[in-house]
Amino acid sequence: MSKLLPLLAVGLSLAACVPAAQPPQGPKPAAYFALGTEPGWTLEITPERLNYNGDYGETKIAVPNPGARPSFNGERYVTDRLTVDVTHATCSDGMSDRRYRDTVTVTADGKTVKGCGGGVLPPSELAGTSWTFVSIGGVAVAGERPTSLQFDGERLSGSAGCNRFSGSYRVEGSTLTAGPLMATKMACPGAGMTQESAFFALMRGPVSLAFPNDGTLILNGADGKTALLKRAI
Q1: What is the tens place of the pLDDT at every residue in 166-204?
Q2: For residue range 118-162, what is the model confidence (pLDDT) as tens digits?
Q3: What is the pTM of this model?
Q4: Where are the beta strands (DSSP E) in the chain?
Q5: Which of 118, 128, 138, 149 is deepest in the core (most CB within 10 A)?
């Protein structure tokens, strides 16, 4: 028994030196963004801070996040220099037809501005919107040649990296069906031709439309292929 006691003591001593297991770290909460025009301003709300950039960048205020207070149909943040009111009511940014989930009012050092924040809502209709390609078939588009996809009335047009194309389209619910796409016959070296071929293959059948709240558009084909686009207008 006397031989076991020193060993036990060593074991307890080593155990005391082992650092305690750290709790698993989950993903950080996403920041909240708002913006306005005339004068241009942006606001970022993180769990730690309120970061305001106003008067086209001339005014910068960063203060600790005091926590949100409930307000009528929204939340309020109050600090010595910034007061932020977030109201859950649809808002247009005033420069385009982009619509946001929230209306945001900021008072910075006594000056009040209004704008929009939260997730970007889908356009009320595709007609009149313009997009650029981010990826096609899961592959990022090449940067050498500009890409575009416009919806005008009952026709769409654009370029997926090589030729110009156009054709008719119709939308039923969340499904987009394009008519035969007519395209110019220019040959393009490199990735432009590959991504264009992938887009034309995607558009041969109906595609479903998805609008994430970051303002992007996803075209989902029946074969699992997709095209990701970001809003231009």
Answers
A1: 999 999 999 999 999 999 999 887 888 899 999 999 999
A2: 999 998 899 999 999 999 999 999 877 889 999 999 999 999 999
A3: 0.73
A4: 32-36, 41-45, 49-54, 59-64, 69-71, 74-78, 82-87, 91-92, 99-108, 111-121, 130-136, 139-140, 148-152, 155-159, 164-172, 175-178, 182-183, 207-210, 216-220, 226-231
A5: 149
